[in-house]
Amino acid sequence: MSLIDAALVIGGIALAWALLGNLGGMVSFGHSAFVGVGGYVSALLTARAGLPVPAGLLLGGVGAVLAAVVMLPVLRLRGPYFALAILAYAHIFRILATEWTSVTGGAAGVSGVPPLPVIAGIDFGGKTGAYFVILTIVCVFAWIYARVSASHYGLALRAMHDSEDATQVLGVNSTLLKAAMLLLSAFMTGVVGAFNAHYIGFLEPDYAFAGLWVTLPIVAAIFGGYRTIGGPLLGAIVVYLLDQLVFKSLISSGHQLILGALLVVMIVFSPRGLLPLLTRRRERDA
């Protein structure tokens, strides 16, 4: 159950990353900034200000949105320049969390983060209760993703992938739509980061802003099919469970090398990912 909870955390971040990449057309290497900021905001507000944990989860998403607002100037950049600029912001936030000791506790971190509450006799702080919480969060975010994709905003965003200049001629404000996707993706990631902080009960900068919050969600999204809604979630569950249950037992150190090789094989044989591959096979069989 712990592995499934962790896989769904990765899946939630992968879904938010895929939303930005698929609809917004932007590849981000800095989603660890939103995970860390969301976790710290929720942890500090609940542990020191006494806010309820559900409110802390939402405010963690709001904190991540404010962090994304600071990043809005990089929307002028495209391609690898945007990705590297977002990565630089993630490092800046990690340094701030480390050096701002009066608020964040510095390298010592924040201990005693309140667990998820007990409601109607159900302990959501346990592994099974936390599973239902993160599953609900991920399902709600997947529904939001689907609604945005099916709207006329989603149509405009997909049209921008072919020709952003042409869509601007038609009156589409591409910068505004990209900013909206960045803020929405940040909110989703911040809520998941806040959940993770309450789930583990401790937070420190090197973990909150770790590179794994970038690499694993990207691998999961691409492996499962980042242009689909269910692909990032499926990819996160398959990739994380394979890595922890199979590859780690084969190679205790450096087991993620096998994960990288598996991703290469998937890209070569099914560039669109695992979910489209399974869908095509099912349709062919039918």
From TrEMBL:
Under the heading CDD domains, the entry gives: TM_PBP1_LivM_like
**Does the UniProt entry include the keyword Hydrolase?**
no
Q: Does the keyword field hold Transmembrane helix?
A: yes
Among InterPro entries, the record links this protein to: ABC_transp_permease (IPR001851), LivM-like (IPR043428)
Q: Where in the cell is it found?
A: Cell membrane
| Pfam families according to UniProt | BPD_transp_2
**What is the name of the protein in this document?**
Branched-chain amino acid ABC transporter permease
For membrane topology, the record states:
Multi-pass membrane protein
Principal location listed in the UniProt entry: membrane
User: Which parts of the chain span the membrane according to its record?
Assistant: 56-74, 81-97, 130-148, 180-201, 207-226, 257-275
Swiss-Prot/TrEMBL keywords: Cell membrane, Membrane, Transmembrane, Transmembrane helix
